[in-house]
Every structure is written in structure tokens, then in C-alpha cells.
Amino acid sequence: MPSTLGIVQRTESFAEALQSLAREAGIDRVDVVGGADGVSEMSVDGLVVSVGGAEDLAPGLIRDLVPRTSAPVVVVGAHADHHLAAAVVRAGARELYILPQDVGMLRSWLEERAARAREAESSAALRRAEAEQYAFEGIIGDSPGLREALARVARIIPRDGVTVLITGETGTGKELVAQALHYNGPRGAGPFVEVNCAALPASLLEAELFGYEKGAFTDARTAKPGLFEAAHEGTLFLDEV
Q1: This prediction's pTM
Q2: Residue 209 and residue 227 in contact, taking contact as beta carbons nearer than 8 Å
Q3: How far apart are CA 36 and CA 91, in angstroms?
Q4: Strands (DSSP E) along the chain, which ranges?
Q5: Beta strands 73-77; 46-50: pairing state
Q6: Which of 4, 106, 111, 189 could form a disulfide with 25 if both were Cys (CB 3.0 to 4.6 A apart)?
Q7: Residue 102: C-alpha distances to residues 73, 105, 213 (Å)
Q8: Which residues pair with 48 in a beta bridge?
Q9: What residues pair up with 221 in beta bridges, in sequence order?
Q10: What is the mean pLDDT of each run of 10 residues along the chain (241 residues)?
């Protein structure tokens, strides 16, 4: 999806300047509305509230806007006032930018929104590719036993937070099943962390799985997160248990 900026334009002070800044920052599309009513229908990566010359309206407008959008909101005005800055931040805005002196900071904020949108789209495309790569279609076979196993797996997929034991002979596709469960399930956006337990000495297994704090033992010079923590909101696949 393209990066989209929403502008709530209460005055005409910066109408052209804001759209020009958005294009320079790499924003793909700019949607403009005149007030809070149109914001609920907007799907945007950031929201700019333009109140140049009517700064006293900003706090009330922000309080009305913030519950209607999940996008970060900033205010653009023409007159610097620390009381106004405090009021709009308390109301829920991220920043108050005063133009023209804050034009560089506003441009940086817009560039950040565009970069985050591109990063989110890239991550979503990668997740889609992974889901396709590890879909059940990649598991070749038509035996009754395999069909029964995949039917059971399909019933597990919608369930979040379950522990699954996959058994089978070497080469029968246990790892493929684990990947299909992860990438097609509710945790597919999280990490898939695989650990070959047979390759870890028993003395290191606990430290690898659960991590340790600095000073926990002689050679623990820094803290190390465990694999359970690394797989947070994703899947930890313990191979060769």
C-alpha cells in the first residue's frame, strides 16, 4: 500500500506548503478533510492538523480527533506558544510544529512516516511470501495418514498460544508442518525461531532457552536473552527434542 498522509485543514494558511512537503518527503498520497468528521474514514500513516492563525482551536480539535484514528497526530501552527504546545500534547498530539521555523523538523517527521509505511509494506509482502512458501501445498504426499495429519493441523491453525507436538520419522516433513502452522496462523507476523536441541550440549540448553543475566555465572559478562524471549509473539520450534 502507498504511504498516505491525512491533513485536517482548519485554515488555508499552509495548504500548498503541506502538500508540497509531503511529496518531497516521499508520501505517496495526501487526503485532506476540513474537520474531525472525515477522519474516521481515513486510513493514513500520519495526520497533520493545520491551524495556522486559529491556534486556540487546536486543543479541542485534537481531543476530538485522537479517538477517531490510530495514526500519530501532529499540529502545525503559525505562532509559537509554550502554553499551546503543552495543551496540544496533553490533548494527544505528538508534536506542535511552528512554520516556517520548524519546517525541517516537520519534513523529517513526514519522511519517517513514509519510511515506516514502506517498511510495513515490505514486511507484509515478506510475510505473504513466507505463508505461500510454507503453505500446505508445499507438503507433497497423498497418503491417508498424511491427509489425516494435515486435517488435524488445519484445526490447530486458528488457535493462538497452543503447544503442538509433531512426531514422525526423519524426512517426513515435521519442520514443514511447523512452518505451515506458524506462517498461516495468528502468530505468522511474529518470529519463527528454530533450535536443534540435539546439537546443544545439556549444560548449555537451559541458558540457550531461557537466557541469563550479567554475572549469573563466571563467564556471563553481559545479559543474554533466551530463545523463548526471542520467539515472543511468534513460534519456538524445538527440533530433535
Answers
A1: 0.55
A2: yes
A3: 14
A4: 4-9, 29-33, 46-50, 73-77, 95-98, 192-196, 211-212, 224-225, 235-239
A5: parallel
A6: 111
A7: 16, 5, 44
A8: 7, 74
A9: none
A10: 81 86 89 78 87 88 89 90 90 92 92 88 73 65 78 82 86 84 85 88 85 76 86 90 80
**Which three cell numbers, joined as nine digits, stand for 129?**
511470501
How many residues are given for the chain?
241
Helices (H) and strands (E) in the chain, counts: 8, 9
Cα Rg, the chain, nearest whole Å = 26
What would the grid cell of residue 146 be?
498424511
Q: Residue 109 carries which side chain, given as an amino acid letter?
A: W
Distance CA 38, CA 70 (A): 14
Determine phi and psi for 179, rounding to 5 degrees. -65, -40
CA 162 vs CA 156, 157, 166, 181, 187: distances in Å: 8, 9, 13, 11, 11
- The greatest distance separating any two alpha carbons of the chain, rounded to the nearest whole angstrom, comes to 74
